[in-house]
Amino acid sequence: MPPTRPFLVFGVVVFGLLITIVSATATATIDGSQSKQRFREAPQFYNSEECPKIVSTEFEDDDHQDVSLPSSALDPDSVLVCSDEAVHVAMTLDLTYIRGSMAAILSVLQHSSCPQNIYFHFVISATRSNASELHTTISSSFPYLRFDLYPFDDSAVAGLISTSIRSALDCPLNYARSYLANLLPLCVGRVVYLDSDVVVVDDISTLYNFNLVDDKVLAAPEYCNANFTTYFTPTFWSNPSLSVTFADRHACYFNTGVMVIDLNRWRAGDYTRRIEEWMELQKRMRIYELGSLPPFLLVFGGNIVPVDHRWNQHGLGGDNFRGLCRDLHPGPVSLLHWSGKGKPWARLDANRPCPLDALWAPYDLLQTPFALDS
């Protein structure tokens, strides 16, 4: 017998044992529902030395002298959420897209120079009794994360939603971005809104601190080469009282999956109500086809601060019908966005990934059957 034979036999036995273990684990995963997905704990990320220190507002000491207490002396979450030095990120959170959300959170933290100064605001459905499960999922993978969950009353918007070209766009939670100013604490004056199908590969504070000049409410990458007329129906464009909406505005398409929002200006201008008015009109006469995007375009199109395209390399999920593979737009990349029908985790699981899905995979925290605990 050749000398390598015993090692070969040993390897076959070990491999068989691994297959048995993996098969049992895989069976448990397949039999489970989406809500039973398990995620690994992410590494903890720390601030660089240049990061601003988070301090509380001023308090009076026993001698009635104004003093400023460090965040460690108080509840860190309470101090951070209202601090001017905090970076606020808002996302929706549900079990359907939780895997994408976990990857997005990890990417934001990993590429931030001041990750401990980031506060996450997660909007969840108030009508589904899974708040504790979502909280546990986030806390288990990110035990150090500063965040809050905000229940969103689906019924408040459900009656305003019209069917669109893709059923996923009709979910009430998809419209929660219009209600952030009402949901988040009043002390939060600015927020970056992110969809769950993004990966950030740059410092989120760069986007967060973008200059909203001329009292603008919103900043986002604009795409003026897109055919803007296709986002509204012939009924809209043929009605002079409606099409005049854009008469004095150089309106361009922008994607609402990545936005910087001044919440104080939003509240002052009652922009939630303005969006709802267009949704009410849509219920009476069909003026658009594409979910929550057109009302934003009607209210803000041509009146936003344009952000460099690097902050939303969108469309990586393909179109809304087939979700075919797409390439990156020319230029640098700070944020990858799998908007469209195809999601990277679904394509990877189906063994039909697009080339760019490999850029999402390193941020996937799903505990797979092959990730055996040591």
TrEMBL record:
Pfam families: Glyco_transf_8 (PF01501). It is an enzyme of class 2 (transferase). Residues 1-24 form the signal peptide. The keyword Glycosyltransferase applies. InterPro entries: Glyco_trans_8, Glycosyltrans_8_dom-fam, Nucleotide-diphossugar_trans. Keywords: Glycoprotein, Glycosyltransferase, Membrane, Signal, Signal-anchor, Transferase, Transmembrane, Transmembrane helix. GO terms for cellular component: Golgi apparatus. GO terms for molecular function: glycosyltransferase activity. It is found in: Endomembrane system. Its EC number is 2.4.1.-. It is a single-pass type II membrane protein. Pathway: Glycan metabolism; pectin biosynthesis. Belongs to the glycosyltransferase 8 family. This is Hexosyltransferase. It comes from Spinacia oleracea (Spinach). The gene is LOC110785246.
